[in-house]
Specification:
single chain, globular, 12-stranded antiparallel beta barrel, 169 residues, mainly beta
């Protein structure tokens, strides 16, 4: 079941609601046990799409915002005013999409699969580090993200918000 099946310790699984990604909306990312793990604040009244990923106590972890006037779709993920990752739409084919995620000061990520149907994986150097899937849930507008134990969960969730938002446009 999930990304780490048959390969060591289970990752942490989070739940997201599909239809709540819009500017001005706030929503919670929950653990599979129903605990509130991260809040996504969709900032209204901004010139570009902006989301803030916060801890349950309200601490701002990452700002996710689209970059206008670029050739390819791009969103930047910032921490403390500095860009920590840039998500770019890399390739579109009939059934698969690919996003490249340039991580500052660390190995890059790639999101690859069926983005619109929420069935894709994040890879780093060819290894799966997270999986996004709707198959784990019976509720229609819900999908899950399972993240390997040794990863920056908040960063991967911020990347998921960016990929989800870019996949809609």
């Amino acid at each position: 079941m999930g990304l780490l099946r048959n390969r060591g310790p289970q990752g942490t699984r989070y739940t997201m609601r599909e239809k709540l990604f819009s500017i001005g909306d706030d929503f919670w990312i929950e653990t599979d046990g129903g605990d509130k793990a991260f809040k996504v604040d969709g900032k209204a009244l901004r010139m570009r799409e902006t989301f803030v990923l916060e801890s349950p106590s309200g601490e701002e972890l990452f700002t996710i915002q689209e970059k206008k006037l670029t050739i390819r779709d791009k969103m930047e993920i910032e921490r403390g005013g500095k860009t920590v990752a840039t998500v770019k739409k890399a390739l579109i084919s009939p059934l698969r999409e690919r996003y490249s995620i340039e991580v500052e000061g660390g190995p890059d990520l790639e999101a690859k699969g069926n983005i619109l149907d929420h069935e894709y994986k994040f890879k780093r150097d060819g290894d799966d580090v997270a999986e996004v899937s709707k198959r784990w849930f019976r509720m229609r507008d819900t999908y899950g993200i399972e993240i390997a134990p040794d990863q920056d969960h908040a960063l991967i969730l911020a990347c998921t918000v960016a990929v989800d938002q870019m996949g809609r446009g």
